[in-house]
Amino acid sequence: MLRRLTSNPTLNFLITNRIPRTLLTIVFGKFSRIRSPALARLSIAIWRRFTDLDLSDSAAQSFDSVHACFTRRLVPGARPIDNAPAILVSPCDAIVGAFGQIDSGLMLQAKGMSYSLDDLLGPSQDPARFEGGTYVTLRLTSSMYHRFHSPAAIRIRHVTYISGDAWNVNPAALDRIPRLFCRNERAVIEAELQDDGTPIVLVPVAAVLVASIRLSFADVLLHLRYRGPNEIVCDHMSHRGDELGWFEHGSTIIVIAPAGFEPAQTIERGRTIRMGNRLFQRTQAR
Asked: I want to staple 222 with a disulfide (CB 3.0 to 4.6 A). Which of 32, 40, 114, 213 is the partner?
């Protein structure tokens, strides 16, 4: 019955957004870290009543906290990675949302509703280099594998942390809240491909009950109470498929590439994609 209630878009929006989002996110973060195997088992059992949680490919099958389950690692080989040189792979397991070409600095959030790349990236980034490029929005549900990985061999140059709200990022909210991704807490990960210096950007966006975004390559935990520094200089080399970080609940990653790339032919709105599957393909050599 509860699943039927939350499947109604209007009720879903009210239940997951018309609440003290920031407070509940902080409280949930503390609760998820309580180390009690019995409490973890009970919480996971309740969680399964609402979602299609599948732990069959998890490296661990028992957990001492909800946090440990959310941030679980997978058994080796669970996510085969496409190694074709002209391909950028999905950094995470996700449901494909909006995707397409960046036109006049605008990207689609939902039908009839756009937002600007400049607004998303913040004042320290140059959005002009991505004009005519492409983007894909990847939504991680609460039951999915929450770690995200490198889409290619990249060099991470800079991270901009932008504090913000904690709106839900599901379709019910995206259809109702303008500029939602630009309102929420997020990290802008600026990188370049190691082989030719092509710029790419990954933007992990936090959401309600996402207690934090952890970046594996930076010794910092980004969360609603983090107050700086906002600009984090990096020089980190990452191979295709290397872990970059994780969410502690479901959320969204927006992947942006410049002109010369397009979404892979298999990309469809609403389709589930796994980390390592094709995401972008080159249309021309640089």
From this structure: 213
Same domain flag for 140 and 194: yes
Is the pTM here over 0.85, yes or no? yes
- Residue 103 among the catalytic residues: no
Of 205, 248, 215, 207, the closest CA to residue 22 belongs to 207
Catalytic site includes residue 165: no
Looking at the structure of the chain, the number of domains it has is 2
Question: Active-site residue 32, yes or no?
Answer: no
CA 23, distance to chain mean position in Å, is 21
Which is catalytic among the residues 65, 67, 90, 93?
93
Q: Give me the catalytic one of 149, 223, 236, 249.
A: 149
Which position among 43, 65, 142, 251 bears the catalytic label? 251
Per-residue tens of pLDDT for the chain, all 286 residues: 444 545 555 555 555 555 556 666 677 777 888 999 999 999 999 988 888 899 999 999 999 998 899 899 999 999 999 999 999 999 999 999 999 999 999 999 987 899 999 999 998 888 999 999 999 999 998 899 999 999 999 999 999 988 888 778 888 888 888 999 999 889 999 999 999 999 999 999 987 665 578 888 887 767 666 666 688 889 999 999 999 999 877 689 999 999 999 999 999 999 999 999 999 999 976 5
**Domain encompassing residue 31:** 2-70
Per the CB < 8 A criterion, the answer to whether 110 and 218 are in contact is no
209 Cβ contact partners less than 8 Å away, ≥ 6 residues apart: 24, 25, 28, 142, 166, 249
Q: Is residue 79 part of a domain?
A: no
Side chain identity at 16, as an amino acid letter?
Answer: T
